[in-house]
Amino acid sequence: MPKIIRKPAALFLVVLLVSACGKESAPGGQQRSTAPSDTATPAADLVLRGGKIATADPATGNVEALAVNGYQITAVGSNEAIAAYIGADTKVVELAGRFVMPGFIEGHGHYLGLGRSKQILDLQDVKNWSEVVTMVAVAVDKARPGEWIFGRGWHQDKWDSVPDDAVDGVPRNDTLNEVSPDNPVVLGHASGHAAFFNDAALAMAGVGDDTADPSGGTIVRTPEGKATGLMRETAQRLINAAMNEYNGRLTPEQTEALNRERVQLAADEALSHGVTSFHDAGSSFETIDFLKKLEEEGALDVRLYVMVRREANELLDQALPQYKMIAEGNDFLTVRSIKRQIDGALGAHGAWLLEPYEDLPDTSGLVLESVEDIEGTADIAIRHGFQLNTHAIGDRAVRETLDIYERAFERAGVDGRKLRWRVEHAQHIDPADVPRFGQLGVIAAVQAVHGTSDGPWIPSRLGDERAKSTSQPWRRLFETGAVVTNGTDVPVERIDPIASYYSSVSRMMVNGERFYPEHVMTREEALTTYTVNNAYAAFEEEIKGRLIPGMYADMVVLTQDLLTVAEEEIPNTQVDMTYVGGELKYAREINQGMSDLLLEGSSYADRASGDTPADTLTETP
């Protein structure tokens, strides 16, 4: 595990005194220093000064500087107050007016999925089916005979056109078969709730025109009954055995190397976007074992809050006590929650609705995991002290999930607020169910960027009236007392918290229109959803989400002040530096000299002796 830094007793007393000072707020919301007047102030390892630091702590407000010892914040306050913490070996970062905030906490994403998305074809920005086919053709030219081609990220509702013979708005695989007759092709939908396969892949899996639809899934077919190549929800699993056999060609060592690369790619991408903690929405016990091994090696650069996923109730009941991991010290792996999934995604017509789809009236969506099975998980979660987080996108799915939770609370005789159970996504909520989040203490774990990314086509699925009354009703959730968190669901969307923050405060869609703007968040609310609330949703509000003494020194330096910059300028904000536990994990390469300095760091003694380059913009005497 990462080294836990233990402070001497005297220093610990100082930190307690400093922390106590930090709880006072000055009149008018002005910053109040947490630095003691005692001249025996211990030197800090790191000082950031000369900026606007949003502590995300209402009692402390915004400050100019902060000091770090080990992996924790020691003090925050004015430049003058924090100057007392600068010693001969203190690294000093001159912020030059830049904006600092707690590191973004990704509230719902898929960590290894993010890493894997960097190893396969990235289809997020394709404009039409022809571009997809062209990318596959190029990959086939480079591939060995029989090698599988993987990709992810396409979304037919975001294309500029679809082929005339499309079925349910999605192409047939004919042209894909032409460019790849022998190499199996698997192209995942952006949502992850559907995938497209060529005939070679279907043949490898033994899937034909007569194959029956599995429970919770659909093999999309032409009017003549031919499989088009599109598989919705659980139908995708019909290919699993063939893919597993193909992946089985790798040795255990090669598989581990591939997974290690995925973890590193995910970390690099997260840190470059200012993400210091990540709620991983679903990993098996096997994957958790792998992540635990990496943590013990000190090979995790981003703090992970992992939800147990895809394990049967019987195994959960037996194994959960051995897998429960609560944050201790400078911890990088926490496991204390379970992920279930009651429905699919709206884009793939898999979200479970109270009424049929507007554009596909013969269905109201799909149930992926039964109410009865999730109900059993709920009882197991309470028995073992685990949080339960359930994927629910459609309004019927949200209602059923809240019903499951309420019944479980009543059976166990517990206050649901203390359990902090979550509804993941909570995209479409019937107005009658909105107050239940606050009443039951259930967290709405939303991804604001989904609203603006999907907004242009949501009315085509639901109709205007239903879309307006149910879609991402954040304002009503806040007003009725719910805790709302934020994220991106990466790799469904890119792991860009600034983009999701912009969606939160503007609800601006790519078409230049606002998606039911009456539900926008304030700047402060949006920042809270990405910091304090995400920490609360992981039972970690005492160590994460705020920049005050005793908290993790997880922080991000931005080029613009998210709280005051003009709304239209928010997307232009860039991440300059990302710190995790007081260590600089990412620095934007403005110029090579600056990058080298940031990554190596410089002490006050170095600068005093003239060893620091004079032209650096970030670290000066």
Brief digest:
The protein has 621 residues and is of the alpha/beta class. 33% of the residues lie in helices and 19% in strands.
Can you tag this structure with a few keywords?
3 domains; TIM Barrel; single chain; 23 helices; globular; Urease, subunit C, domain 1; 8-stranded parallel sheet; disordered C terminus; alpha/beta; 33% helix; 621 residues; Diaminopimelate Epimerase, Chain A, domain 1; 6-stranded mixed sheet; disordered N terminus
- Helix and strand content put the structural class at alpha/beta
CATH top level assignment of the largest domain: Alpha Beta
Task: Provide the residue-averaged pLDDT.
Answer: 88
Q: Enumerate the strands of the largest sheet in spatial order, edge to edge or round the barrel.
A: 8-15-16-17-18-19-20-21
End-to-end separation? 35 Å
Record field, number of beta strands: 24
| Low-pLDDT residue spans | 1-33, 591-621
Please outline the major beta sheet. Answer: 8 strands, parallel
Shape: globular
Percent helix, as a range, is 25-40%
| Share of β-strand residues | 15-25%
Roughly how many Å is the radius of gyration?
A: 25 Å
Count of separate structural domains: 3
Might you state the CATH topology name of the largest domain?
TIM Barrel
CATH superfamily label of the largest domain? Metal-dependent hydrolases
Q: What CATH architecture of the largest domain do you see?
A: Alpha-Beta Barrel
Q: How many helix segments? A: 23
